[in-house]
Amino acid sequence: MRKSILAVAVLGLIAAAALPSTASAVSSYYTSQGCSGCHGATPTTCNGCHQHGPSGLAGSLSATTLTPGQGFNVSVTAGSRSGWWRAAVLDAANNVVGQVSMTASGTATVAVTAPATAGTYTWKAAWYGNQYGGPSGAWVADPGNSNHGYRTVTLPAFTVAAVQAPAPVAGLSAATLAFGNVTVGQSTTRTASVTNTGNAALSVTAVTPCTNTVPPFGITPSAGFSVAAGGSQVLTVSFAPTSSGAVTGCFDISTNDAAHATLRLSVTGTGAAVPTPSASLTPATVAFGNLAAGQASTLTATVRNTGAAPLSVSGVTACDSSNAAALTVSPTAAFTVAAGGSQALTVRFAPTAAGAAAACWNVATNDPANASLQLRATGTGTAVVPTAPIASLAPATLGFGNVTVGQSASLTATVGNTGTAALAVSGVTACAGTNAAALSITPTAAFSVAAGGRQVLTVRFAPTAAGAAAACWNVATNDPANASLQLNVSGTGVAVTPPPTGCTGCHAIPPATGRHAKHQGEGVGCGTCHGSGYSSTAVNAATHNDGTKNVAAAAGFNATSRTCANSCHGSETWGGTVTPPPPPPPTGGSCTSCHAIPPATGRHALHKSEGVGCRSCHGSGYSTTTVASATHQNGKVNLSTRSGWRVTSRTCANSCHDSERWSTSTSTSHDDGDDREDDDFVLTADEEAAAGGCSSAGASTSLLGLLGVGALGLLRRRRRA
């Protein structure tokens, strides 16, 4: 057992001796190990034998794209220990291509040169020292120095690019030049540029037209030329068509650019026909018709140019010597009309005597198709017709009749002129004698009335006293046949006697006429019918002083239709006289104050015996104790709209009777198709009186009586059936 343990110990010692030893980084070690024999005694260093401490080894390039043989720098960092040290750069084959010794710690800059051959390379940054100097980086041994070598780290790759020989690069700024339309016989130019974007001069040896490219295209310069690197040369191409139509062509530009030995410039254009003017004249004849001698008139004709070129008119001249002197034209001098424009020619006719006149003018133009346009004019001078005014006065007499003293009235007369010249009125003056002061006229100053016109004369009558008044005025004119027109006026002033303060000055209260006494007996006051301002002692002068018994608008009396649509009568109509309404129902609306319940008239009793309530026929608000004042208080027994009683057709279209009809004669049969005689519907004398509604005795129940008759008959028929 002991022998075995001893053997293991011996083997361990042998293995430990075979392993590389790691030197401790102490400055005394530099001297004791004999390093100073080669490197010098001072200064001592750790970095000379050991890699720079914990930060490790690193490197970087100053450039990654290089040209063959171009110098560049490699930065090497090897740690932080003190003392001198050596940095190196190795190529891919571990050849040292550069190195530098540093006197202190930090970053070393190693200058190197790029390979002469183009390509991509990967080199190494290195620290040179003892093999046992540190664990980081790959180790490259120095074959000439035992236990020494290079601790390395791979640098970024870099590229060496071969240097290109200088060369031109040719181009054109435009591959095609388009001229569009160019008028035949004219010329225009366009330009393009030869460019050189290379780094050597561009040589253009020739500029030649392509096959079949002949005038009208031309180019300059056509000889050879040179374009410096980065420069350009302008080429000017001309197009001068000699005929109309489209033309194409091209030019070849020969260069020393191997990649662009020939540049081609294409050209296009169209020869356009020469524009010409197109002349016209409208109208070709102007006719003045008849024109009185001594007067003048003008008409126009128009020269138009619908062509594409200016129209030149060299002048407007008479066709011959027969032109009438009364006819003239302007302008006659030369003028120009732009394409699409026009020029007016003004012809004037000024006859000096009666008779026909004619003229003709030539308008000379540069339009080959219309070199001369002809304008004709005609007219007839007529003799001058003498003119004169013709005066009239209508009416010649004005009668005012009676006008109340203190009031005024106006009437008018008209001075007319039916002649052909202005009528001059020198003034309006009183005739011989004395005009009444109450009568006056305007205007009295001079005035003029145009031919066909008129002037109104206003006469005013304002009597200040009772009695007849008269006046006369002369209207002096320049009409030889009516040199003086006479206007006669008359009127009478009448005095007005105001009514006495009270009504009894004219009539009793109430007046004995009409239904005044009846209304007063029913308690109807004067103001109810006649309106505000009327009482037993006073009247309203605004509606009574004129002698009539006007009823105020509020009362609603219509004298024409003889109806009084106020709160008493509704829209009832009276024959020759107005029937006064019955007194209103007593306060509280009790029906028995006027009639029994049901009333004895008509068919009220029969309706009640059939169980028909008051409101069934008379509407809402009616019962055995109340009435609706809106439809009953005015003296009528009005049926509601729902009941549907029609006075004219004598039908009642409610839910009881539908549209049956009753007659007021015993000879009339029922209209509903029943062939039985309708004796049930004949009105008795009392019913007839109740239905009429015109007498004072039956006015209060007129419509109700009529309803009673119809309703009773229908109920009898139904009961009999």
Query: Overall 3D geometry?
Result: elongated
> What percent of the residues sit in helical stretches (DSSP H or I)?
10-25%
How many separate domains? 6
Q: What is the CATH topology of the largest domain? A: Immunoglobulin-like
The major sheet is characterized as: 5 strands, antiparallel
What distance separates the N and C termini?
A: 156 Å
Strand proportion, as a percent range, falls in 35-45%
Strand order of the largest sheet: 5-4-8-10-9
- The number of E-state strands comes to 42
CATH architecture of the largest domain: Sandwich
Q: What is the radius of gyration? A: 69 Å
In terms of per-residue confidence, which ranges show pLDDT below 50 for 5 or more consecutive residues? 1-24, 570-582, 661-721
DSSP summary: helix tally: 11
Mean pLDDT score: 78
Query: Class of the largest domain, according to the CATH hierarchy?
Result: Mainly Beta
**SS class:** mainly beta
Structure report:
With 721 residues, this protein is mainly beta. The chain folds into six domains: 29-160, Immunoglobulin-like (Sandwich); 170-272, Immunoglobulins (Immunoglobulin-like), CATH 2.60.40.10; 279-382, Immunoglobulins (Immunoglobulin-like); 391-494, Immunoglobulin-like (Sandwich); 503-564, no CATH class; 591-720, no CATH class. The chain is 12% helix and 36% strand. A hairpin with a 4-residue loop joins strand 39 (557-558) and strand 40. Helix 10 (685-692) packs across helix 11 (702-720). It is elongated. The protein starts with a helix and ends with a helix.
Secondary structure layout plus pairing:
Elements: H1 2-18, H2 27-32, H3 36-39, E1 58-61, E2 65-66, E3 71-77, E4 85-90, E5 96-102, E6 107-113, E7 119-121, E8 124-130, E9 138-141, E10 148-154, E11 158-160, E12 170-172, E13 176-183, E14 188-196, E15 202-209, E16 217-220, E17 225-227, E18 232-239, E19 245-255, E20 262-272, E21 279-282, E22 285-292, E23 297-305, E24 311-318, E25 327-330, E26 335-337, E27 342-349, E28 355-365, E29 372-382, E30 391-394, E31 397-404, E32 409-417, E33 423-430, E34 439-442, E35 447-449, E36 454-461, E37 467-477, E38 484-494, H4 516-521, H5 526-530, H6 541-544, E39 557-558, E40 563-564, H7 604-609, H8 614-618, H9 629-632, E41 645-646, E42 651-652, H10 685-692, H11 702-720
Parallel strand pairs: 2-11, 13-20, 22-29, 31-38
Antiparallel strand pairs: 1-3, 3-6, 4-5, 4-8, 7-11, 8-10, 9-10, 12-14, 14-18, 15-17, 15-19, 16-18, 19-20, 21-23, 23-27, 24-26, 24-28, 25-27, 28-29, 30-32, 32-36, 33-35, 33-37, 34-36, 37-38, 39-40, 41-42
Helix pairs in contact: 10-11
